[in-house]
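My convention is simple: the sequence line spells out the residues, with the fold written below as integer tokens. I include a record here:
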Amino acid sequence: MLPKHRHPLALLFIKISPEEIDVNVHPSKIEVRFRQEKEVLSEFVEAIRKALYPPQADSDIITQVTRTIEDFSYIGKINTGKPELNKDKAKYSPEKNLEDNILREIKPLAQLFKTYILAEHSLGLVMVDQHAAHERVLYESFLKKYSAGKIEKQRLLKPEVILFTPDEWAAMLENIEFLENIGFEIEDFGEESIIIRTVPLFIGKMENFKEYIAEIADAGRISDINKRRDEMIYRVACTGAVKAGDLMLEEEIKALIEKLKRADNPRTCPHGRPTYIILEKRDIEKKFRR
């Protein structure tokens, strides 16, 4: 899904046997999936990585790499077994191949507008959206802990009483099990109100518990179970992430960048917004007519 007002950078045309496509993932057939989804994605990422970062390429030289159709010929041969991949091709693993990530060599410099982190790279100036980056880090971390049932809680020194509107109350009741599973200890306080005694440890200081819970509960109205879970966890991460306009200390900036490097998908937030952009050195030099 593309963010609003953005356009695709490229289009991929894949020729594959219909038997290797699952068309029953959506009742209206507006979404389909590969049966061997991970294997197809892994091979495409590897091909793109090698095209963008060829071995021993000088960062100041534009290297044009042409891939022939034979490089992707295995796609049409996928069967119910494992795909016939070249044994000498190591599968892409973000945590094991940090050198493949553009973030690997960046040096944080400063915070801009209390919204962006500026960092130096051999290719140019990297601008990191602090909110989108923190969303990605929290989303992946929380999703793993939630899936493993290892959510940490913190008890409030003073329990928080929250009064809801009828609609908010109904949404909260429908999703109270999820809220409790992610670390909230909630008790009915009568007349469409609750009392909160514990909250998820990672959210830190929270000024508006009502807005936080209402935002998560609202996502619970999505009919698809998997999409509902992902959207609710996304909203947990979004609400808990550092905001645009928040001042970040140097240590916090460095810690965020290090965690983003190790994310499974460090390039975008959970909803597809870019976490960083690059202003290439050559483009900056053009502005100064160098």
Summary: Helices lie at 37-52, 130-148, 166-174, 176-181, 209-219, 225-240, 250-261, 281-287. Residues 57-100 have pLDDT under 50 and may be disordered. The CA atoms of residues 76 and 96 lie 29 Å apart. The first strand starts at residue 21 and ends at 22.
